[in-house]
C-alpha cells in the first residue's frame, strides 16, 4: 500500500503527477465521481460552499425519536423526503421494561402521520436495508449512524448527528465546504481466505492516525475494483468511517448493475466513473493481492496487524497492546492479553462473533459455513455466534443450508441485530478475549463496565478467520491457514416479499390526523437559553487522552434504551470516563438557576470580584453560567448527537479542544448550542477553572478570528488567552447565538 504525499491526476485511467497540457487543476477537480454527485445535490450554485439536499434519510431506534422530536418542535408537518426508520439496536427489550418497544411504536405512528418507512425489529440492520432498498447510483443518503456508507453501490452516504437530519425534515440544507477527494486506486485480486474486513483494517491502519483522508471523500477506482463482488465492496466500504473520512464512492460496473437487478431495482443502476482527466487531493495505491488476514487489537480498528505477524511475535505485540489499552482505561481495571498465549505458543480466544452491516452479509456467512462445514467448535470456553444482516439474507441462508452447517458445527445463529457492534449483545465474561467481524472495538463496545471492575477485550477480524478460529476450537487461526476450504459462493436470490409483508411504507402518503404514540419514557427536549452577550463557564472535566470517543462522552450499550428521554440519558454522560462530570455539571447548572432567580451564588460573586479587579464588568443578571469540558481531541466514532446534547441538557455551554476528531461531533455541538472552542495552549486551563468570555455573542456573529477569554483559577489567579471557533456558516453562527437548532427554527 502506498500513500502518495501529494495530489495526483488520473488521466485515461492512469495516475500521473502532472496535469496534461492545457488542463488546470480546478478543471480536473470536476472530473471525480464525487464532484459530479455533490454538484447534482448542491443548491447554492457555489461548489466551494455546498448547501445540499439528500435523496433519502435513515435512522435507527436510538436516534429517530430525538430527531422527530426536534423536527416537530421546529415546525415539521410531514417528511419531505423518504425517511427509513429501522429497529436494529434496542430490540432485545432487556433494559427499562417497555421503553424499547414503546419507541418502536412511536416510529410506526410517525411513519403513518408524516409519511415514513418503518422496518420492524429484527427485520434488518439499518445499513443492509438501505443497501437493498434505498441505494442507487448517483444518489445521496443521510443517516444518523456513523456507518452510513453505501459508496460501493454508487451512493454517497453520510453519517451525521440528528440535528442534520432534522434540518432536512424542515426543508433546510446540509452545509459544508466542498470536501477534498482521495483516490483509493485498487489493483490485483484478494488471495483465498482474505475477506473484506482484512482489506478494510489494512486501510484503516494506514490512514487513521495520520489523518490522510480525514473529512474527505474516499473514491475507489482502478482495475482491482472489478475483482471484488458487491458484498465484498460493501464490507470494505462500511469501514471507511473508521478512517475518519466524510464519505465514500466507488466506480460502478457490471457487478453493481447485477446487484440492482438481483434486488429488483434495475433502474437504480448507472455507470459512474472518473472523467478522462480527474484530480485527486491524495492517492492510496493498494494491490489487493498483498493484503493478508488481519486483526485489529483492542481498542481501536486502526491497531491492525497481519495475523501472521501477531502469531510470530505474540508476547511482544500483545504486551504492547495491553499496555496501551490499560493506559486508555485509566487504571480502573487491567486488561490481560498476554495470558491468552498458551504454553505451546498458540493464542486462545473465548468468543467469536460475526454480525451486523459489516460481518453479517450473505457472502461472509456463506464463507463461514464453508469453513465450518463438518467441523466442531468444541465444548470449551470458546463460543461462536452469527447475526445475519437482514431477513432476506437469513431466508436464503436457510434455503442453501448455510444455517444448518453453522449450527451443526456448534455455532449459534441469531436475529438481525446490531448489539455486538455497540455493546448490547453477546457480552463476554470478565477477562475474556473476543474476536468479532463488527465495525468497532472501542472501550466498552463489547458491553463490559470497567468502572465496575469488568473488562473484556475485543479484536476485529474477518468472518473467514473467525470461522477458521472456531473450527480450531478457539485457537487464533487465519483463514489463509485453512488451505483445503472450498468456497462454494452460492448464488443469492433476494426475496422482497419478506419486506413487502412486514415493512410499512407510507412515503408520499402522510396521515396528518394519525396520533403519535408516546411511551412514558419519551420526553420533549428541555428548553435551552440563547447565548448571552458575555458568558461564564466552569471547566468540570479535563481529559488529556489523545482522543476522546463519543462512546466515552456518552456510553453505548444498555444506556441506549434511555435515548428517548434526554434528562435520563444525560445521567450517563462521561460516566465511564469521569464519574464526577454529571454531579459537577449539575452543580454549575444550579448556580445559573440561582442567578436567574436573582440570587447570585457566593462562588460566582468571588469570580466576578476577581474580574472586576482587572477591568471586566460582567452583568450578573444577563450573563449565562454554563459548564464546559476540555479534551485534546473529542468526538472520534459515532454520529450520535447525544454526545453533545447530553452535555447541553446538563447546562453545558462550551467545549475547549485542541482539535475535533470528526465533523460529525463538531456539528452536533453547534446544533445543540455548544460553542466548539479551539485552544492552542491547553495548559492555560485546569479542572475547576472559570472562564469568562466577554463579548462572545458579538464576536461569534461577526465571525471574529479570535475571541478573548479569561481564566479565573480557584485560588483567584488570572490567565488571559484567546480561543477560536473555526470556520462556520452564517446559519451555524446563528444557531449558536439562538442557543440550539430548535430555537433557531422558532426564531427564523
What structural category arises from helix and sheet content? alpha/beta
Strand content: 15-25%
Q: Quick check: average pLDDT?
A: 96
In angstroms, what is the radius of gyration?
Answer: 26 Å
Oligomer state of the chains in this structure: single chain
Strand numbers in spatial order across the main sheet: 17-16-22-21-18-19-20
Number of strands: 32
Envelope shape: globular
Q: How far is it from the N-terminal to the C-terminal residue, by CA?
A: 50 Å
Uncertain spans: none
Classify the helix fraction into a percent range.
25-40%
Number of helices: 27
| Main sheet record | 7 strands, mixed
Descriptive account of the structure:
With 748 residues, the chain is α/β, with parallel strands linked by helices. 31% of the residues lie in helices and 18% in strands. The protein has a seven-stranded mixed beta sheet, sandwiched between helices. A hairpin with a 5-residue loop joins strand 31 and strand 32 (718-723). Helix 13 packs across helix 15, helix 13 (362-372) runs parallel beside helix 17 and helix 26 (730-738) crosses helix 27 (741-747). It is globular. The two termini are 50 Å apart.
Amino acid at each position: 500500500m502506498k500513500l502518495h504525499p501529494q495530489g495526483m491526476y488520473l488521466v485515461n485511467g492512469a495516475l500521473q503527477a502532472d496535469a496534461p497540457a492545457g488542463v488546470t487543476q480546478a478543471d480536473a477537480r470536476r472530473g471525480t465521481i464525487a464532484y459530479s454527485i455533490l454538484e447534482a445535490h448542491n443548491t447554492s450554485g457555489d461548489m466551494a460552499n455546498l448547501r445540499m439536499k439528500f435523496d433519502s434519510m435513515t435512522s435507527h431506534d436510538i436516534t429517530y425519536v430525538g430527531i422527530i422530536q426536534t423536527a416537530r418542535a421546529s415546525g415539521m408537518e410531514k417528511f419531505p423526503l423518504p425517511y427509513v426508520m429501522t429497529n436494529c439496536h434496542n430490540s432485545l427489550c432487556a433494559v427499562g421494561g417497555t421503553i424499547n418497544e414503546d419507541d418502536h411504536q412511536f416510529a410506526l405512528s410517525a411513519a403513518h402521520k408524516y409519511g415514513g418507512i418503518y422496518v420492524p425489529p429484527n427485520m434488518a440492520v439499518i445499513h443492509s436495508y438501505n443497501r437493498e432498498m434505498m441505494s442507487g447510483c448517483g444518489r445521496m443518503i443521510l443517516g444518523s449512524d456513523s456507518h452510513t456508507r453505501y459508496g460501493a453501490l454508487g451512493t454517497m452516504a453520510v453519517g451525521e448527528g440528528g440535528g442534520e437530519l432534522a434540518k432536512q425534515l424542515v426543508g433546510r440544507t446540509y452545509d459544508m465546504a466542498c470536501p477534498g477527494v482521495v483516490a483509493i486506486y485498487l489493483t490485483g485480486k484478494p488471495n483465498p481466505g482474505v475477506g473484506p474486513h482484512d482489506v478494510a483494517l489494512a486501510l484503516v491502519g494506514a490512514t487513521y492516525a495520520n489523518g490522510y483522508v480525514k473529512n474527505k471523500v474516499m473514491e475507489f477506482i482502478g482495475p482491482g475494483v472489478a475483482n471484488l463482488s458487491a458484498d465484498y465492496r460493501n464490507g470494505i466500504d462500511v469501514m471507511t468511517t473508521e478512517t475518519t473520512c466524510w464519505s465514500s464512492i466507488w466506480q460502478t460496473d457490471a457487478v453493481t448493475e447485477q446487484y440492482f437487478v438481483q434486488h429488483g431495482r434495475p433502474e437504480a443502476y448507472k455507470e459512474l466513473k472518473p472523467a478522462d482527466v480527474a484530480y485527486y487531493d491524495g492517492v492510496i495505491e493498494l494491490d489487493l493481492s498483498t493484503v493478508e488476514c488481519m486483526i485489529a487489537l483492542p481498542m481501536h480498528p486502526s491497531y491492525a496487524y497481519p495475523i501472521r505477524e501477531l502469531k510470530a511475535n505474540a508476547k511482544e505485540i500483545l504486551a504492547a497492546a495491553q499496555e496501551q489499552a490499560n493506559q486508555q482505561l485509566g487504571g480502573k481495571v487491567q486488561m490481560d492479553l498476554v495470558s491468552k498465549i498458551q504454553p505451546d505458543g498458540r493464542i486462545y480466544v473465548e468468543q467469536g462473533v460475526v454480525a451486523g452491516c459489516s460481518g453479517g452479509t450473505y457472502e461472509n456467512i456463506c464463507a463461514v459455513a464453508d469453513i465450518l462445514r463438518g467441523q466442531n467448535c468444541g465444548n470449551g470456553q470458546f463460543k461462536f455466534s452469527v447475526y445475519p444482516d437482514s431477513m432476506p439474507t437469513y431466508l436464503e441462508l436457510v434455503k442453501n443450508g448455510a444455517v444448518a452447517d453453522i449450527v451443526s458445527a456448534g455455532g449459534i445463529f441469531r436475529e438481525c441485530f446490531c448489539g455486538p457492534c455497540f455493546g448490547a449483545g453477546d457480552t463476554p465474561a470478565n477477562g475474556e478475549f473476543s474476536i468479532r467481524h463488527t465495525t468497532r472495538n472501542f472501550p466498552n463496545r463489547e458491553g463490559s463496565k470497567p468502572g465496575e471492575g469488568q473488562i473484556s477485550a475485543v479484536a476485529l477480524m474477518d468472518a473467514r478467520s473467525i470461522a477458521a478460529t472456531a473450527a480450531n476450537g478457539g485457537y487464533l487461526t487465519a483463514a489463509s491457514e485453512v488451505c483445503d476450504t472450498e468456497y462454494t459462493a452460492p448464488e443469492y436470490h433476494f426475496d422482497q416479499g419478506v419486506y413487502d409483508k412486514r415493512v410499512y411504507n407510507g412515503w408520499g402518503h402522510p396521515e396528518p390526523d394519525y396520533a403519535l404514540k408516546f411511551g412514558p419514557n419519551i420526553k420533549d427536549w428541555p428548553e435551552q437559553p440563547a447565548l448571552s452577550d458575555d458568558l461564564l463557564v466552569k471547566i468540570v472535566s479535563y481529559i488529556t487522552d489523545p482522543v476522546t470517543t463519543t462512546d466515552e462522552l456518552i456510553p453505548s450499550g444498555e444506556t441506549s434504551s434511555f435515548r428517548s428521554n434526554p434528562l435520563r440519558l444525560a445521567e450517563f454522560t462521561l460516566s465511564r470516563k469521569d464519574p464526577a462530570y454529571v454531579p459537577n455539571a449539575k452543580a454549575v447548572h444550579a448556580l445559573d438557576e440561582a442567578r436567574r432567580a436573582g440570587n447570585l451564588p457566593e462562588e460566582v460573586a468571588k469570580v466576578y470580584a476577581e474580574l472586576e479587579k482587572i477591568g471586566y464588568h460582567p452583568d450578573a443578571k444577563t450573563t449565562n453560567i454554563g459548564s464546559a469540558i476540555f479534551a485534546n481531541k473529542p468526538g472520534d466514532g459515532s454520529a450520535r448527537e447525544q454526545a453533545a446534547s447530553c452535555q447541553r441538557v446538563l447546562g453545558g455551554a462550551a467545549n475547549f479542544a485542541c482539535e475535533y476528531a470528526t465533523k460529525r461531533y463538531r456539528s452536533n455541538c453547534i446544533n445543540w448550542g455548544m460553542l466548539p472552542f479551539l485552544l492552542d495552549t491547553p495548559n492555560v486551563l485546569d479542572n475547576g477553572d472559570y472562564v469568562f468570555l466577554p463579548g462572545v455573542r458579538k464576536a461569534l456573529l461577526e465571525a471574529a478570528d479570535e475571541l478573548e477569554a479569561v481564566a479565573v483559577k480557584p485560588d483567584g489567579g488570572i490567565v488571559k488567552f484567546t480561543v477560536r471557533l473555526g470556520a462556520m456558516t452564517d446559519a451555524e453562527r446563528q444557531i449558536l447565538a439562538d442557543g440550539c437548532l430548535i430555537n433557531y427554527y422558532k426564531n427564523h
